[in-house]
Amino acid sequence: MARFVYDFAEGSRDLAELLGGKGANLAEMTRLGLPVPPGFTVTTDACRAFLATGSEPDGLMSEISGRLTVLEEAAGRRLGQPDDPLLLSVRSGARFSMPGMMETILDVGLNDESVVGLAKVSGNERFAWDSYRRLIQMYGSTVMGVDGSLFEGVLDDLKRARGAATDLDLTAADLAGLVESYRDLVHRETGAYFPQSPAEQLRQAVLAVFASWNGERARIYRRRERIPDDLGTAVTVQTMVFGNLGADSGSGVAFTRDPATGRPGLYGDYLANAQGEDVVAGIRNTVPVTALAELDPVSYEQLRSHLTTLERHYRDLCDIEFTIERGRLWMLQTRVGKRTAEAAFAIAAELADEGLITRDEGLARVGGEGLARLMFPRFDTSAVGEPLAHGLPASPGAAVGAAVFDSVEAVRRAAAGEKVVLVRQETTPDDLPGMIAAQAVLTSRGGRTSHAAVVARGMGRVCVCGAEEITVDTGARRFTVGTTVVEEGAVVSVDGSQGAVYLGAAPLVDSAVMRHFETGERPDALVGAVADALERADRVRRLEVRANADTPEDAARARRFGAQGVGLCRTEHMFLGERRTLVEAMILAGDETERERALGALLPLQRKDFSGILEAMDGLPVTIRLIDPPLHEFLPDRTELAVRIAAAEARGERPDPHDSELLGAVTRMHEENPMLGLRGVRLGLVVPGLVAMQVRAIAEAVVERTRAGGRPEAEIMVPLVGAVEELRIERAEVERVLAEVSEESGIPVNCPVGTMIELPRAALTAGRIAEEAEFFSFGTNDLTQTTWGFSRDDVEAAFFSAYLDKGIFAASPFETLDRDGVGRLVRIAVDEGRAARPGLKIGVCGEHGGDPESVHFFHAAGLDYVSCSPFRVPVARLEAGRAALPGTGSSDSR
After folding, report:
1. Cβ–Cβ < 8 Å for 70, 7
2. Catalytic residue among 751, 845, 848, 868
3. What is the rounded average pLDDT of the residues 39-58?
4. Radius of gyration of the chain, Cα coordinates, nearest whole angstrom
5. Per-chain mean pLDDT for the chain
6. Which positions ≥6 away from 863 have C-beta within 8 Å?
7. At residue 56, does pLDDT exceed 80?
8. CA pair distance 440, 465, nearest whole angstrom
9. DSSP states along 441-464
10. Are residues 753 and 691 in contact, defined by beta-carbon separation less than 8 angstroms?
11. Using the 8-state DSSP alphabet, how is residue 140 labeled?
12. Who's near 313: CB < 8 A, 6+ residues apart?
């Protein structure tokens, strides 16, 4: 039979999975000899059994009763004893800290008889009635389901009637009357009476804490923190100590270091004549915990000593709760404290400098998500009001600019020195110049992996997508939110970290960490701590980190940020802007001569692009993907063309012949699902000359850089391969062109030819494909899309929030790799690919390459490198180092 109850003296912090964080740490403090009120812990096993059946596990209450007897004998008092009652606190304590998300019930054991005994033995009648009213309020709301605001309403009415500013101004008689009012409220709302049996109070309190694991706020918190739903909570049952006995008593919360900055010292709050929940509830103004040095010097020095003991024992920032009962200090809880990203890096560095932890332990305690927060500018949240609208936080950071509604206007205003925010319903490749010019991108449609989100992250632009409250009217050049109209030119502030949009200019705080990556400067200790962590990560990591870069500027920035090459250069971005007319000419070509003329015009432009990127990454690999998207994306929108032609005809005018020709081409090329149509390798197989032009441009760029004394390392990647035959045919064409350029130039051009693994069939036939591929790169955006059957531009806004709410997803599979499905395909492809071609180089270039948790998976799966946007390179470097450490978690510590 399972054991469900452990005395504090029996546990340790190593049993957190069984005893929960609170119970394990109370046991650890007991072992250290700190003043911990006696108690016991009901295990998470008991909670899981309760949640599975809806009733208490067999034998649980018998175990609790037995442990309670031991507690009573040690205290010399019984639970609820009429003349001198033992009272208990019943508190939740999950494996991972979930502060305030579950229930707590204090003063268990009080009833109409024992409250009189407590008043007599304490010599403080007011204290006794105050404790009793707290129990009825907590028990009534937690166990009996009474709306907590009803209790607050009764209390507020009483204070108004008595002219009392705070609870402390109420007399013992007032509080006795409040108890009566609370009991009447409970009976009126539930039809049941507040239980007078102390044993029944304890039983129901334990079960109510179990049930609170599935409360709404707990579930929401777990989703946000990615805490599994099946862990359950432990329950700690502890002898009550009282901070509300008078001026020589009180309660507080303290930290061994500042959790906001990491600075050493005693930080926290203290409230005299109060129980613990008063401190966090804010019912009265607290004082800094350092004020205790004057209020109670003895307790203050003891507290400092205990905090030093705990920090040195846990070798980390500790967060503790304490109570002083008539001058005697009691330690009620400790845990490794939550902290900001800034504090995490600072504390890890300082503890390593002090020799309390190793450099590797310091690296394990910081994370990529925290580093990303430190890299982006942020708003001063104390100076902004309520957001105008909310959307999906697609690319982090904070930006301010004038709202503009098309790419041309964004470029024009930016060229004049104005900061702008590009506002669109959704973006397309045509919007790229405007996105480059803008400080931020705001869309009313799309998800975190929509075009706007992916490109914005790649460029380090702030982006909020799917802000459905916003109605964008591009014709009128404005957007509306309810009755608020925002005209073009009006200043808006976009918070890509929170998914919020503000009207007007919110003040920004610059990122010293980003300046460090750009310049190498170390202006303060925080930047030094970040730099040291990255240097350590670079020494221990196995995974290389490359960047997705489409321009020489992106490549140069990526190299400054520590990239070891380019893992994805998307050639289609080079066909936009003024070059679009050349692509149109190629598509509209009536014969081979016209097509070759258009391709010939594109050749030197592509060569120049590749040469610049190879120069920026000289001596490092640059993986160039041949054109991937459907060709119709380079043509005008079919509906716009049709409307333009119809409008001309309605005016009695002859439509522009070029428009008519374009409409015919767009109509011919129209596909119901173009992402599964004529794109990728299929284009190269059916559009004559396209692959040859691109490969020649790459090869001639290699020759140009070689002649200039460079060391170009170009790699050619064929996208969307599903069958080895496709790759075999296209590779033959690639090698033919490479051989031609080698012969013409007299310089050997050796470019490895590989493929993207982005279709399930490619992953499942990776062994055969590896016979023709010299390297693999997982395109996890499309692999996720095709594995799940999702259209990533549609589904996030449509139903992902519901899937997250229902627990179908712990996180969007486009943000963090789906290990069970997509991850299994990755592992199959790695194993079979290397079995067919030992030493096969394998990387990933999808958005997951910069996601902290996904980086850990790619390390474990045996990939050689990850590739991500330039601005996520430091994040990937840090996480690749953390992944190489034994026993390191996959994300920032909770």
Report:
1. yes
2. 845
3. 94
4. 33
5. 90
6. 543, 778, 830, 842, 843, 844
7. yes
8. 11
9. EEESS--TTSHHHHHHHHHT-EEE
10. no
11. H
12. 28, 32
Give the mean pLDDT of 146-162: 92
Model-level pTM? 0.80
Residue whose entry in the numeric block shows the structure tokens 């925010």:
421
Confidence of residue 890 (pLDDT cuts 50, 70, 90): very low
Q: Give me the sign of the Cα torsion angle 349, 354, 360, 366.
A: negative
- In three-state secondary structure terms, 253 is strand
Half-sphere exposure of 331 (CA within 13 A, CB side): 31
Residues 544 and 564: beta-carbon distance below 8 Å: yes
For residues 611 and 335, give the distance between their C-alpha atoms in angstroms, rounded to a whole number.
55
Angle between helices 368-375 and 873-883 (to 10 degrees): 160
- Contact in structure between 335 and 319 (CB atoms under 8 Å): yes
How many other β-carbons are positioned within 10 Å of the β-carbon of residue 523?
A: 12
* Cβ–Cβ < 8 Å for 2, 195: no
By DSSP bridging, strand 566-570 and strand 621-625 are parallel
The beta-carbon contacts of 831-837 under 8 Å, at least 24 apart in sequence, are: 832/766, 832/767, 832/770, 833/766, 833/767, 833/769, 833/770, 833/773, 833/776, 834/770, 834/862, 835/767, 836/766, 836/767, 836/768, 836/770, 836/771, 837/770, 837/771, 837/773, 837/774
d(CA 199, CA 90): 13
Burial of 172: CB neighbours in 10 Å, binned 0-12, 13-18, 19+: middle
**Bridge partner residues of 487 (DSSP):** 478
Read off the pLDDT of residues 116-129 as tens digits, 9 standing for 90 and up.
Answer: 999 999 999 999 99
* Closest listed residue to residue 354, CA positions, set 394, 315, 408, 313: 315
Is-catalytic flag, 451? yes
Spatial CA neighbour of 851 closest among 222, 396, 347, 378? 396
- Helix and strand tally (H, E) in the chain? 36, 31
Distance, in Å, from the CA atom of 833 to the CA atom of 25, rounded to the nearest integer, reads: 48
Whether 284 has a pLDDT exceeding 70, the answer reads no
Q: Side chain identity at 265, as an amino acid letter?
A: G
CA atoms within 13 A on the CB side of 35: 17
Helices 552-560 and 512-519: crossing angle in degrees, nearest 10, is: 100
Going by C-alpha positions, the residue among 390, 399, 377, 421 that lies closest to residue 500 is 390
Taking alpha carbons only, the member of 341, 359, 337 closest to residue 350 is 359
Q: In what side-by-side order are the strands of the sheet with 484-487?
A: 471-473, 478-481, 484-487
Question: How confident is the model at residue 280, as a pLDDT?
Answer: 56
Buried b (16+ CB within 10 A) or exposed e, 414-449: beeeebbbbbbebbebbbbbbbbbbbbbbbbbbbbb
Residue among 451, 632, 848, 859 flagged as catalytic: 451
709: left (phi over 0), alpha (psi -120 to 50) or beta: left
Picking from 510, 646, 622, the residue whose alpha carbon sits closest to that of residue 559 is 622
Q: Which residue has the tokens 């018998």?
A: 62
State the amino acid at position 868 in one-letter form.
Answer: C
Question: What is the distance between the alpha carbons of residues 136 and 803, in angstroms, rounded to a whole number?
Answer: 38
CB atoms within 10 A of CB 406: 17
Whether residue 465 lies in the annotated active site: no
Helix (H) or strand (E) holding 254: strand 250-257
Percentage of residues in the chain with pLDDT exceeding 70? 96
Residue 708, token pair as written in the block: 């200039």
Instruction: Using DSSP, state whether 87 is helix, strand or coil.
Output: coil
**Cα–Cα distance measured from residue 503 to residue 401, given in angstroms and rounded to the nearest whole number:** 10
What is d(CA 816, CA 821) in angstroms, rounded to the nearest whole number?
12
Query: How far is 126 from 170, CA to CA, in rounded Å?
Result: 9
From 463-477, 632-646, 767-781, the region with the lowest mean pLDDT: 632-646
- Alpha-helical (H) ranges within 416-511 are 432-437, 451-459
